[in-house]
Write a structure and sequence with these properties.
Elements lengths: L1 E2 L2 E3 L2 E4 L5 E5 L6 E6 L3 H20 L2 H17 L1 H12 L3 H24 L3 E3 L6 E8 L2 E5 L5 H14 L3 E5 L5 H12 L7 E3 L4 H8 L5 E5 L2 H14 L2 E5 L4 E5 L5 H13 L9 E7 H17 L18 H16 L3 E4 L14 E4 L6 H4 L6 E7 L2 H9 L3 E2 L1 E5 L3 H10 L4 E4 L14 E2 L2 E2 L6 H5 L1 E8 L10
Parallel strand pairs: 1-5, 8-9, 8-11, 9-10, 11-12, 13-14, 13-19, 14-17, 16-17, 19-20
Antiparallel strand pairs: 2-3, 4-5, 6-7, 7-23, 12-22, 15-16, 18-21
């Protein structure tokens, strides 16, 4: 079992006066990690120490900061097996996908090490004998509050961008994956000056306490409810809130696509990581012309998925992160079937230990159901049959969220309409996942705001200052 420690004022081991949280393996309910719950005094001390360390790190040459990030990336790569094992043990992700998450985190650290050295302001055209420029500077103290569903990759992105731009960071990982946060912070801290990185652990109250501190930016990836609380907490301090929150991403299946291929895409989007992805497929609108064959193929794919503990390399569908999340998912499914939906497969909590839930396909769904309106975050594919692409597009656009959406179509006209009209940050055509590296989007509505990744994340982590330099007055106007 991992005994998690906090990092406060360059000292590992602080914590415990406020009690501890124990995380159990969602596959078999055995304890896997134990983390202290930070006290209010510890939260304040971490932010104070970060504030004291900020000027020196901000003044360090960007090449020095980038080199520290490269060394940290190498260390994370060397420790990839332990990080992946911790991720699987704490939240159940199949080990192969967990390793993929660590690899993505390593790549992201290296990406920001490179991007940081070329991140710049710009010169302005003004008076001939003056110098005018827009200079970028670090914001100062950045609070990073990260989720449990992809804990290494997401943390590496936010931490890497904040650190390479000269900010100091106080990191609070999810209480569901504290060992992942601890192991990652320990690796990064070895390559950073004292005080540049702090680590606090605990539940939502710790995150709320951190967001309310005198910090300059709070970067959060997680639920919409938590994101809105963080945004409210930032108002009194004027801290910037950078939020990527929940989603209820639609998938549209047009009449002119291969329904078996479309079902494979839908299964990938709905069931990967047991549906616990920010951009998981959460609701499906399929044209009646292909609906029957699509549903048959989707059910076959769901039934073929091999469930099991994430540590088994043959597992395709691991458990949900915990029983609380399983209860949430099962509650939405039960509510849907009570209101007329039909479970073509799945939809029943299996017996035995852990937090397993089967790949579930629902049909006869309507807009008012929670599975079509809210974020489910589980291996559930709710399907609505529609009469036209126009109807699908209209229904997909009606949502309190705006994170991403996918359209499967053979029509370029419909593809063009979809990316223009869907009120989401990311639109994918004919692929539920993928895209060129470096892309960055603004989520909409309840899904948050601000660039959370890509080169533009460096802009979020910095402030821009306009500078006008003129020669001194006098007859010769000389320096």
């Amino acid at each position: 079992m991992w005994e998690v420690q906090q990092l406060i004022a360059s000292s590992w081991g602080a914590g415990g006066a406020n009690g501890h949280l124990t995380v159990v393996d969602p596959a078999d309910d055995t304890p896997v990690s134990r983390a202290p719950v930070a006290t209010g005094a510890e939260i304040a001390a971490a932010v104070k120490a970060a504030r004291q360390a900020a000027p020196q790190w901000a003044a360090a040459p960007v090449a020095q900061r980038a080199e520290a990030l490269r060394r940290a990336a190498d260390a994370v790569e060397t420790a990839a097996d332990e990080l992946a094992t911790a991720q699987t043990a704490e939240m159940g992700r199949p080990i192969g996908a967990a390793r993929g998450g660590v690899e993505a985190g390593v790549s992201t650290l290296r990406q920001y090490a490179e991007l940081g050295t070329v991140h710049r302001g710009r010169a302005l055209s003004g008076e001939p004998d003056a110098i005018d420029l827009m200079a970028v500077q670090p914001r100062g103290v950045v609070a990073v509050i990260t989720p449990w569903n992809d804990p290494v990759a997401v943390s590496c992105g936010l931490l890497g961008a904040a650190l390479v731009t000269g900010n100091v960071v106080v990191h609070k990982p999810s209480e569901r994956t504290p060992a992942c946060g601890f192991l990652l912070a320990r690796l990064l801290d070895e390559h950073l000056p004292p005080g540049v990185l702090s680590l606090l652990t605990g539940d939502g109250e710790v995150g709320a306490g951190l967001a309310a501190q005198d910090v300059d930016l709070v970067a959060h990836v997680g639920s919409t409810t938590t994101g809105r609380k963080i945004a409210a907490a930032c108002v009194p301090t004027s801290a910037k809130a950078l939020l990527e929150n929940g989603g209820s991403d639609p998938l549209i299946v047009d009449a002119d696509v291969d329904p078996v291929w479309a079902a494979e895409q839908a299964a990938l989007g709905a069931f990967a990581n047991a549906g616990q992805l920010c951009v998981a497929v959460e609701r499906i609108y399929v044209h009646r012309a292909v609906a029957s064959r699509f549903l048959t193929a989707l059910v076959e794919r769901a039934d073929a998925m091999r469930p099991g503990p994430g540590r088994d390399p043959l597992t395709e569908l691991g458990p949900l992160v915990d029983r609380r999340q399983r209860d949430h998912v099962d509650g939405q499914v039960r509510a849907a079937t009570a209101d007329g939906a039909t479970a073509l497969t799945g939809g029943v909590v299996p017996p035995g230990p852990g937090a397993f839930y089967p790949a579930t396909v629902l049909t006869n769904c309507v807009d008012a159901m929670a599975v079509m309106r809210e974020e489910t975050f589980g291996p559930v594919a709710p399907v609505m049959v529609v009469e036209s692409f126009d109807e699908a597009l209209s229904r997909a656009a009606t949502s309190p969220y705006g994170l991403a959406g996918t359209v499967l179509t053979g029509s370029m006209a419909n593809a063009q309409r979809a990316w223009r009209e869907l009120p989401v940050g990311t639109v994918k055509v004919n692929a539920v996942f993928g895209g060129a590296p470096g892309g960055a989007a603004h989520p909409r509505r309840g899904s948050g705001h601000g660039f959370g990744y890509g080169p533009e994340l460096l802009d979020e982590m910095t402030v821009t200052k306009v500078v006008h330099i003129n020669a001194p007055g006098g007859p010769d106007r000389s320096w």
